Amino acid sequence: LATACNLSLSGMTRVVNRLEKQGFVQRAKCQEDLRGWNAVLTDDGLARLQEAWPAHLASIRRHVLDNLAGHDLAALTAALERVATTP
Question: What is the extent of the structural domain holding 86?
Fold first, then answer.
């Protein structure tokens, strides 16, 4: 999770601690590696995500997509498709 978020392990721990304190995630023992833990989204966390998602997408559209057209938009689309399909 830390790698996916581009955070250090200690930075990710701080984020998860905060989210856990707010009731948005809970820790669950990793079944594949019993030394590790997974952060699991709670019902409250999912509700908060669903509440925030439309405003987040609108902000991306307003600040990024609405400022691109034609070739620039096509280039961004191609780049994002490569990122999305790269393991």
Answer: 43-87
